[in-house]
Amino acid sequence: VARRLVGYFQGRTEPGPAADQALLRDALPEREREAYDVTPIVELLCDVDSVTFLREAFAPELVTALGRIDGRPVGLIANQTTAMAGSVTAAGSDKAARFIQLCDAFGLPVIALVDTPGILAGPDAERTAILRHASRLLV
């Protein structure tokens, strides 16, 4: 696992085989409010077997992954609509901000797949200082 992770930060490699991009046509449900798993979409965008998902158990409403597209390492973030409808939470905001900082430090482009109802609201969210955490994504 460590060797695979370090490999993303060592630059471009030979392009791997690409997944059938036609599968993306049917990747999203027809009904807008229907939840779906975003991980197969992330895998379809990248070279075959090049995706490593990071911190899957922490803030599952946001997916972070490293992958390769045409041999070039990239970072991917995506809202996971099967967890809290993909809402922006304090934990998810921190997860995204740290991941973006990691990608920035190594010069990796970040691809963002956004499907979210917005920032989670309510007394519990306000106790976590959601706006302070979410604002890290805007800087």
Structure description:
By secondary structure, this protein is α+β, with helices and mostly antiparallel strands. It has one domain (2-11, 36-135): Alpha-Beta Complex (2-enoyl-CoA Hydratase, Chain A, domain 1), CATH 3.90.226. The chain is built from five helices and four strands; from the N terminus they run H-H-E-E-E-H-E-H-H. The chain has helices at 2-8, 39-45, 90-105, 123-127, 130-135, and strands at 52-54, 62-69, 72-79, 110-113. A four-stranded mixed β-sheet has the order 1-2-3-4, with helices on both faces. Strand 2 and strand 3 form a beta hairpin. The longest helix is centred in the C-terminal third of the chain and has 16 residues, at 90-105. The chain is globular and about 50 Å long. It starts with a helix and ends with a helix. The relative contact order is 0.16. The model has no long low-confidence stretch (mean pLDDT 87).
